[in-house]
Amino acid sequence: MMQKLFHLRKRTPDEIRSSDLSFNIAFDYPDAPESYMPFRAVGRQGNANVYSIVAPNLSRSDLAIISYIKPQVVSKLVEVPSDESASIADAKKVALSILSNYAISENKELIADIIAHDTAGYGPFSLLMEDSKNIEEIIVNDPSSRISVYHSTHGYCRTNLSFRGEREFRYMLNKMIENTGKEVNAVTPIIDAQLPDGSRVHAQLSPYAVRGTSASIRLSGSKRLGIKELLKNGTATPDALAYLWLSIEAGLNIIIAGAPSSGKTTLLSALCAFIPKSKRVITVEEDVNEVKIGEYLTNNVALQGASGDKPIHVNEQIINALHMRPDMLIIGEVRGQETKEVFFGANVGVPFATTMHSNLDSNALINRLISKPMSVEPQSLSALDLAVLMNSSGINGRKVEKIIEYKWLAKGEVEEEGVNHDGYIANEVFSGGNSLETIKKSKVLSKYASATMSSTSAAMKEMKRRAAFLNRLLMQEYESVNAAEYVRSYGVTL
């Protein structure tokens, strides 16, 4: 990542001294770490998850070496002509060259890495962003508190990094968003910015952020969790995924709902592996490409809304998508008027899968759909077949909490089972990880049976076969198997 060093030239003596690191490193590590990258460890410390920048025998003397070496690195880097840029790699190379003149045997790589990120990078931000395959979000609640991250496997983790103060925090934050044309200052105390790599930055200054500047950075490079990973980390059971597999093949309309960062988009991306390869799929997202379809769907077109000088509203892109003869629509998220177009498409035979923010209640989800700004008309709403409700907690992580089937009743129709809420029955087919054995009546079974010209009992047998098939992904001998290719090997065609 190339970063201009004009900041190093224009800083005044009363600003950050070149010998000062912009951040503190605490000697605070997990009790039983799982090391997966050089100089990084993650694991439990008491009741909390901890993500630490770590090296053997890292000590305060190493930090003193950093303060001594950093000005020399800065001096070398500012010699670069003004029309050129220095990268983090360049800065690390310079640091290692200088360190080679001293009798330092341990931790040389980490010392050089820290100096490089604090000069040519964004301090702790870019240091953490190096692990973007595992870190989904970087969170700073206030300038003096520990930086937190959301790890794709371990959830929320406290790091052993913190900014020295408001000045350093704001300096590195503005350096990071420099190329977006935005700056956090008294005139623009609240900003939303998208970095060139697609990462999204939200920051606020005091008094809007009560304890001082706060920031959240959603990284775009985090690894895509597929079917295998969702099974391994307990997000979904083989039974629940087999049920959703049949749902997609039967052409049901699905909303994945939950709180922010509950795993909605991750699940939506993983479910794309179940879409038959022959299907023409159109994906629509507002700005960032978060839904990862993968290479297994060859007849796929991705559309985007807000982009460039003249952005197109996502609502228009959904209308455009419906003109492209799709077999299925994948919409990253619905939250406004575009929801009406999605349901219009469903009512003319184009099934969809999407996400939305909602609490864990089947009726609350319906109320949100019919209320402003979504305003889905009641006669269109009957196209909704399933709601997958996601939950996220620090203890159990992200999980499929419930799967709801909606049965829409004709006016005056009465059902013996269930409760009629304004013309529909919400049937909890999965709740708290129950098995397929508990399913008695199911829209999925009946629609899959109709699509395959079989019986509901045959559909149930097929669902159980697929659950067993998916369960084998958890076995040791399937460790190196690509889950998407494994699903394709099942050889199901409709």
Spatial strand sequence of the major β-sheet: 3-4-5-9-8-7-13-12-11
- Assign the structural class, choosing from mainly alpha, mainly beta, alpha/beta, alpha+beta, or little secondary structure: alpha/beta
The CATH class label of the largest domain is Alpha Beta
So how many helices? 16
Q: Report the strand count.
A: 21
Total domains:
2
Proportion in β-strands: 15-25%
> How can the largest sheet be summarized?
9 strands, mixed
Q: If you consult CATH, what is the topology of the largest domain?
A: Rossmann fold
Give the fraction of residues assigned to helices. 25-40%
Straight-line distance between termini: 46 Å
Which whole number gives the mean pLDDT?
A: 86
Low-confidence stretches: 1-17
CATH superfamily of the largest domain, by name, is P-loop containing nucleotide triphosphate hydrolases
Q: What overall form do the CA principal axes indicate? A: elongated
Report the C-alpha radius of gyration, rounded.
26 Å
CATH second-level architecture of the largest domain: 3-Layer(aba) Sandwich
